[in-house]
């Protein structure tokens, strides 16, 4: 099982299927610094080298906690194109919090990178507007 980025957490989640009956299917999930990878058919498929479905953080808008029961926490990942993907996990596992914190960290990193890029562009524009530096000839003593 190969997942790009540093692995923050690995375990099992249940994802609601898109089918008519909307059954809950167990998935092996790997949370890394820039994505959530969902392996089909649980842990056995990951060991066989199955290709995961990847939810990259740049395409995720938010994580909504929908409901908490005695046994499960139900939450929804909302993508930038407004697609909603429903999950549930055991109450004590706190997967929703782990995903939310990783997403916030990713978004903060991107904001810092964007800010630094803008600063560098502004410095370049200022240098271009100032023109070439004046050349002065040195005088002999």
From TrEMBL:
One of its GO terms (cellular component) is cytoplasm. Keywords: Cytoplasm, Membrane. The keyword Cytoplasm applies. Its main location: cytoplasm. GO terms for biological process: positive regulation of apoptotic process. It is a peripheral membrane protein. Residues 117-141 are annotated as: Disordered. GO terms for molecular function: phosphatidylinositol phosphate binding. InterPro entries: PH-like_dom_sf, PH_domain, PHLA1/2/3. It is found in: Cytoplasm; Membrane. Residues 7-106 form the PH domain. The keyword Transcription regulation does not apply. Belongs to the PHLDA2 family. Plays a role in regulating placenta growth. May act via its PH domain that competes with other PH domain-containing proteins, thereby preventing their binding to membrane lipids. This is Pleckstrin homology-like domain family A member 2. The gene is PHLDA2.
């Amino acid at each position: 099982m190969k997942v790009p980025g540093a692995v923050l957490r690995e375990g099992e989640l249940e994802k609601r299927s898109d089918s008519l009956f909307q059954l809950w299917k167990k998935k092996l999930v790997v949370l890394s610094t820039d994505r959530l990878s969902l392996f089909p058919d649980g842990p056995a498929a990951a060991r066989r080298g199955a290709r995961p479905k990847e939810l990259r953080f740049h395409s995720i808008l938010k994580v909504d906690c929908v409901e908490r029961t005695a046994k499960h926490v139900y939450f929804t990942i909302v993508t930038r194109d407004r697609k909603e993907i429903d999950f549930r996990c055991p109450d004590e596992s706190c997967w929703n919090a782990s995903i939310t914190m990783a997403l916030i960290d990713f978004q903060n990193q991107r904001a810092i990178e964007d800010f630094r890029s803008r600063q560098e562009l502004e410095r370049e524009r200022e240098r271009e507007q100032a023109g070439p530096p004046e050349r002065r000839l040195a005088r002999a003593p």
